[in-house]
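Aim 2, interim progress. The first record below pairs a target sequence with its structure tokens.
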Amino acid sequence: MNLIAGVERQLDTLAVQSLTRRRRTADSPCAPRQVVDGRSMLAFCSNDYLGLAAHPRVIAALHEGADLYGAGSGAAHLVSGHSRAHAQLEERLAAMQAPHLADARALYFCTGYMANLAALTALGSSPDATIFSEALNHASLIDGARLAKAGVTVYPHGDVAALETKLLESGAGTKIVVTDSVFSMDGDLAPLPALLALCERHGAWLVVDDAHGFGVLGANGRGALEHFALRSPNLVYVGTLGKAAGVGGAFIAAHASVIELMIQRARPYIYTTASPPALAHALLASLDIIEGAEGMERRAHLNRLISLLDDELKLKRWQRLPSRTAIQPIVIGANDEALRAASRLHEQGLWVPAIRPPTVAPGTARLRVTLSAAHTQDEVAQLAAALNHLETQQLERTAA
């Protein structure tokens, strides 16, 4: 068998199904106005929800962190790679989540993917455990559940009653319910208060992946737990620091004993080199902004942009999902039509990605619009006008 020919057949199949993914190369910092593949673009595709990725204070802190700690950590956290910057960041993150967790402690990871793998494999390390996973959970949560020794049961999206039935039927010694807070392709929020009440009744952990909520949700930007005013020892909170926080990495916050378990058992933490300390130092500046007056104003501006897009879009066949978050999906349906729409926008200098299966269900290909506090009202109005015009052209083409 020709191995390369087999690989090329797989690639051809993806192309026929309009499922080929393409990388673009940014030549400038992450911002609404970017130079991409040598061309100026207005981007609506990053997760830099507060516009902190290129914030002068964060950049200055990154420079300072490099001066203090050098370029790299040199080893895993449990060898010699755990710096004072890492320790200070974990203390700060634990303090942010302390109102919502008993005896809070935090643990910093290189990526959100690693944090989710760590949380589920450490908590679900026994075959006597069962993970109850939300149907629309992020791939990292799905993979974490697959890698755990625990059994896995999937419950329908947002269906608390169905989850309760599954919990009642389960004889597992350890029950772990896991959900995104903000669903990355739909932009809606999980019913966290109802899920937590259910977990407390059934003695289950509730693992919340707040990748798209931390920094954005809550009066102080502390995330979904603050947004819903939740507090419980059953909570295990995962926050991402490369989205609204603008830098990189992620953390788990939970009861101190749970974090100690992660340190002792979580392979994605134990067996990898610690992230550069300069990143942790920069994140301290980012957290200052998130919790301060500037962060509050940026969240308010972002909410105004969300309302503006809602007001300006006049879609007839395409569907804007009812999201009040920075994630604003426009469901188109067919893969090829979504690709054409993204291509037409790109021709106009608007960078909006087409999302297709397996990231979303077949027949629900979409444009994933993401808004940032760094966008202006005029830029959002420009996008809305382009989408309205594009859909009208498509309707006229279909009618003809």
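The second target in this work package is listed in the same format:
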Amino acid sequence: MAALPRESVAPDAPHILVVDDDARLRELLRRYLAGEGFRVTIAADAAEARERLAGIAFDLIVLDVMMPGETGLALTESLRRTHDIPIVLLTARGAPEDRIAGFEHGADDYLAKPFEPRELLLRIRTILRRAAAAPAATEGPVVLGEAVFDPERGTLTRGAETIRLTGGEAALLAALARRAGEILTREDIAAALGQADAGERAIDVQVTRLRRKIEPDPREPVFLQTVRGRGYVLKPR
């Protein structure tokens, strides 16, 4: 995992913020990701991460869950109020309920420790590729009541208001919009999001978060409906 010389990293390369209270792991990830061509900034805790975020526009955050003070989950939830930057959570807890908690708080992906740096690299590249690629066009904007989703730009608006979508939420809505009116299984959705190992419950959590953005009453969805025993279907109207 030898790092490339610092000057070999392109000035326009994606910039990643690594936040972890483990100094050894921080440095390992900094060297490894820099060696793979990324610009990398590190922070030891949530407070230091906030300082970095105040002055730099990052392309992705790699964030430890279990940190002293403000946890990674709390920081993720807080950032989701103002940022749509992709977040990959790292944690020593790999149980399904821990992964679900990560998605509930707004994470884009979740990786249990210990992990191979190569696996983290693949997940980072998948998320950045998804964020950079415009979703395949449908026949035009998708109307969801008073809201309109532009699948080419990945934007959701309601009148003059732009509704903030995370990268994962935009990708999920785009995947559903591309096959509007068709039932997508949870496996279909996981594959479209590059989350083949996410698990059914994790997909349900992401659907629930999206419903909060597009439904008048998320408890009684009219646009993003559940088809019992099969999956989900998007019904523009």
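Helices lie at 23-35, 46-55, 72-79, 96-104, 117-132, 167-178, 186-192, 200-214. This observation will shape the mutagenesis plan for the next reporting period.
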